[in-house]
Amino acid sequence: MEKVLIELQQAIENGETQIAMNKTKEALNYGIRTDKIIQTAINPAFKDLGQKMFDGEIYVTDVLMASRAAHAAMYVMEPILSRSTGTSKGIVAIGTVAGDLHDIGKNLVIMMLQGSGYTVIDLGIDVPAETFVEAVRMHKPDVLALSSLLTTTLPELDNMIDALEVTGLRAQVKVIVGGAPVTAEYASRIKADAYANDLFEATEAVADLVKNRIGKYAI
What is the distance of C-alpha 179 from the center of its chain? Predict the structure, then answer.
């Protein structure tokens, strides 16, 4: 059974979408739980890719291909992940910041959050600060999740938090940031409430923020 998880991780890292779907189905048929599939195959794949990207061994396009393969794997598990008690644990508004057109990582987080029982408002990609502000004002989410995959769009995370301060909404919502170039140090510098490096960290951090407690992913 462990072999199929290794093969799934390799398929994701290689950007092999169909193989990733097949290996996910195979893992589920073996009775492997979805959380184990994510923790031992999908998350490690992204950690390896992140290190390779940092070392200059791969490019953003490679990460995007891997993200598509991971999304395909998550899609296979979606019917299981979407089972919930029917009672929302909280509201999360999420979007990719202005200038960034990538959404696969965001979509994976959305799937995880929905599967964990949260109501998720997807604001999409290339979202300007004023749209985030309006979403906070209109939907009153417990958590605002900001994603940035590009180093060039990192300043938008800071701009977004500043926009919440200027409009007097900062105290009304917890902010979590994430994405390939985002670090805990950067999140702390821009005064985000939490930072997440992968799908599970994002879900755990949101749980902490919704319960208004200081968790291990808090800044």
Answer: 8
